[in-house]
Amino acid sequence: xxxxxxxxxxxxxxxxxxxxxxxxxxxxxxxxxxxxxxxxxxxxxxxxxxxxxxxxxxxxxxxxxxxxxxxxxxxxxxxxxxxxxxxxxxxxxxxxxxxxxxxxxxxxxxxxxxxxxxxxxxxxxxxxxxxxxxxxxxxxxxxxxxxxxxxxxxxxxxxxxxxxxxxxxxxxxxxxxxxxxxxxxxxxxxxxxxxxxxxxxxxxxxxxxxxxxxxxxxxxxxxxxxxxxxxxxxxxxxxxxxxxxxxxxxxxxxxxxxxxxxxxxxxxxxxxxxxxxxxxxxxxxxxxxxxxxxxxxxxxxxxxxxxxxxxxxxxxxxxxxxxxxxxxxxxxxxxxxxxxxxxxxxxxxxxxxxxxxxxxxxxxxxxxxxxxxxxxxxxxxxxxxxxxxxxxxxxxxxxxxxxxxxxxxxxxxxxxxxxxxxxxxxxxxxxxxxxxxxxxxxxxxxxxxxxxxxxxxxxxxxxxxxxxxxxxxxxxx
Length: 477
What we know:
Elements: H1 6-17, H2 21-39, H3 41-48, E1 56-61, E2 87-92, E3 97-102, H4 115-127, E4 136-138, H5 141-144, E5 158-160, H6 161-171, H7 174-184, H8 188-202, H9 236-249, H10 254-257, E6 261-263, E7 271-273, E8 296-304, E9 308-317, E10 320-329, H11 336-351, E11 352-358, E12 370-371, E13 379-380, E14 382-384, E15 388-393, E16 401-408, E17 420-428, E18 437-445, H12 454-474
Antiparallel strand pairs: 1-16, 2-3, 2-10, 4-5, 6-7, 8-9, 9-10, 11-15, 12-13, 14-18, 16-17, 17-18
Helix pairs in contact: 3-12, 4-7, 4-9, 6-7, 7-8
């Protein structure tokens, strides 16, 4: 072997110590990493524990459910019903879906359908413990002076809240109604303020109450009329909203409204007959069986010369309750309001149903788990907190169902199963229905996520740091 020349040896020695620039840069990077690991990691951990943001992530999924093979039946038009009314509406109370509407936003005289608000307030007073059904009410001069439908109370007469409530609910007694109003408030006019306040709270946009009964102002006793002279008005839609509150907040309402008659006083003259001819129980009553309607259990009639014949009815079939309102039927025919109500209710029960489109505790298909900071797991799956149902044409499928989710950003462990992590809004446009229905449900964590220990958080922070660093280095080339 040849001995190495001095020149060659000199080149080799020089090359050993004169490394390329990129190797020097790598060495500097490694040194920097070591320094950062010793001094910067706590800052990274502090960053990981930063205040979570309030931003949300929104995604939209079309056709959120698999369509069925059946096609919905054709729905007849409202015009084909030939309704002889000034206005009408049909409402499903659990979804708030308006199934039928005919001039439903027009404010009209409601007559004794006004008493539904008095019924609601009195029932609320009992529910809150401010009144008891057995409390005794003494009739005032104003109550005794009422005209129209009444149970002929005399000033000083005493009856229980329950007796007067039934007289109001089934006999539409104006004197009993005022006696109750003056029990809740110091005067009927003070009670009317409560009525109008409740109307606003319920979202009744056209309703204005002048008294507790629905009488025209001219028929009120002298000295008790409102100074502004504004008559009681209410749209069919507002009447349906009021009825919705009654059946929802006081589901025992039908304990009173289904009474075919009530013995208010001893003797035949003291018996009150229910003015609602459509009660299902009337199917065996010769005079009323032509009007009796399956499942109907309320709610309130109304009649004045100005209003014509009105009726807010409600019935249940196959687990679905519907609320119908007809206003301004033939003033000379009490039965006309029930004939028109049958058309409206039949339209609803024959053509529509409530269908559960999304089950409770259902995983949202096609969605990624939501990120969780500081957890043993870095994400958690989620599901719906409750079921979603819509009013649909009979036989309709879920092919028109769409979903939009909004997930919380900055979630941090610990998280318990059932904690809210976002919301999902489902929209359903049924064939043959004018407007889409929308419902929102909470999205909840499907499992617990425990908080990770400090060492795991440290290693995760270091891993994240290295990942970011090398990603940055890679991007240099």
